[in-house]
Amino acid sequence: MRHHILLPTDFSGNAWSAALYAINLYADEPCTFYFSHAWTFLNTGARTHVSESYLDPLKAKSKEKLAAIKDRAKIESKDRDHKFETFFCIGSLMDSIEIAIKKHNVSLIVMGTKGATGTQEFLFGSNTVTVINKMRQRPVMLVPENVNFVKPTHIAFPTDFNRFYGEELKSLKQLADLHKSQIEIVHINKKEQLNEKQHSNLEMLNTYFKDYEHNFNWITESGKKEQAITSFIEDNDINILTMINYEHSFVENLIKEPIIKKMGFHSIIPFLVIPRVD
């Protein structure tokens, strides 16, 4: 099966880091990677009308940059079954992503995230927050700036066992298949015992992952969830964090700006956000 992966780029270093991570993550898989750029012109000057003769060279410059990234990726991916295409779109980032999904049957979006800014730590930039909030069609992998690829031997999947799991888990299995990763299911205890519904969902997970190396990990809640997950990541050499973005879920709370500014949860490893399936 050939994977079709979208790599949005603003030509920044962290966008390239994300692309490089994706190329290495799928090193042994047949893939077509699409470098996409959403081009917009902000008329901040005194011009009320901007002629095509002025805009066309700007568009051409962006297309040249896309072509250069494509050539650079080909060099990085030598001798692999990888193809690279470019996709130039006039409009917003979300416009470009949605068009690419329809046009190229994209199965995964891989984006770069910015690191710490000054004395404050930010997990996501505004563009990333927009994509996570609005993207309900495909999973999105967020890759920290300057991250070095490490074979993902352990993938963390935090859950409260309160929801029935369906097609969402297919993305997690596909990710684990790439490098035969062990899935670390993490539950933060609020109560000493699970209720009947939680027990049922736990058993369903155990059955669903019966052909995969997996563990159930129990953490006693003693503070913020994001702090507990961060500690688990650091203490257990977790390489990728995955979560399902249900409505009113932890992911939804995580990307709200007031929490981001206060939290110690820093974007230290790639983070796969899986959209819920209604």
Automatic annotation (TrEMBL):
What's the superkingdom here? Bacteria
Put simply, this protein is called Universal stress protein
User: What organism is recorded for this protein?
Assistant: Bizionia argentinensis JUB59
- Please state every residue range assigned to the domain named UspA: 1-144
Instruction: Please state which protein family the record places this protein in.
Output: Belongs to the universal stress protein A family.
Extract the PANTHER family matched here.
STRESS RESPONSE PROTEIN NHAX, UNIVERSAL STRESS PROTEIN UP12
Per its UniProt record, what InterPro entries does this chain match?
Answer: Rossmann-like_a/b/a_fold (IPR014729), UspA (IPR006016)
